[in-house]
Amino acid sequence: MKILVFEYITGGGFNKQELPDSLAGEGRLMLNALLDNLMRLNSLEVTVMLDWRIGALAGVNNVVIGAEHDVAEEFARLVRQFDLVWPIAPEFDGILQNLCQTVELSGKLLPTSPATAVAIAGNKFKTYELLNQYQIAAVPTRILDDTYFSSFDRLRTGGEWMVKPVDGAGCEDSYVISNQQDFEQMAARKGSYVIQPHLQGAKTSLSCLFKQGRGWPICANSQRFEFIGRQYHLAEVVVNHHPDLGPYRQLIDKIALALPELWGYAGIDLIETPTQTWVLEINPRLTTSFVGIYEALGINVAEAVLQLLHGEPALKPVCNHPVTIQTKQEAHAS
């Protein structure tokens, strides 16, 4: 099988502008982890798209994307040459959705969620509406607009709120606000934002596989953030921090039924309080936690995803311990 891997940040998505070190660092982590998984399998020929400023990778075919290239055109051209195409990309600006759609229209195998699922999961407000419709506890989310503040008396009388891009990945451009001045500064920004109550609780994530309304948990992960300048910055992820997945299985089953278009690997971000586990967002793509799964459990996630093409995944751990991934960057997708 001929496979094309395209990690957007390191693969040429920023080929005509400065390469953001923080995003590139995280993208390289996920790219290397995926390639490690794929290279453990037989009968695969793997090709990787690489930004012209990224050094060549050993053991795979490298396609260099130069500053002169139109990366979308190059991606569409390359897709036609492969059996299966695995994009890794952020949701903002419709990037991941468009890549998935390109692969689907080509008739090639897409081992990730299709564009229809990304259109929902990549939009925080649409995700909240869907989960709420299926009576899944989700952090209350509203679209931020000029009329919102005047109608929300609780914001004036105290408490903190999170304002974030409706399609943002991780913590980038997300801020905690607590007063009218904060709100007015955020309301003046360009773009579409949502507002959520700033809930206090354990910040965890679930690494899962999905297929046609079914979900399989892989591991639960703990996230540690630093809070600097009204923003959260992901400092580290402890992959497989708690071996008991029992408390999460019912939630994963509910999410699978609510969004049956989810396919392959996805990450579910949670905030756990003493009285409730809240779904914060659904990431329909590889996440930072994916990087530590093979070391923590001995599970080859890429192999399990490819098994989904023909049946059920074989998720059989050969070890079971936590693994810490250091992610001190400015912006992350966890």
Automatic annotation (TrEMBL):
InterPro entries: ATP-grasp (IPR011761), ATP-grasp_PylC-type (IPR003806), MfnD (IPR024710), MfnD_preATP-grasp (IPR040803). PROSITE patterns: ATP_GRASP (PS50975). Coiled coil: none annotated. Keywords: ATP-binding, Nucleotide-binding. It holds the Pfam family ATP-grasp_3. The keyword ATP-binding applies. It comes from the Bacteria. The keyword Nucleotide-binding applies. Gene3D superfamilies: 2.30.36.100, 3.40.50.11770, ATP-grasp fold, B domain. Residues 128-310 form the ATP-grasp domain. This is ATP-grasp domain-containing protein.
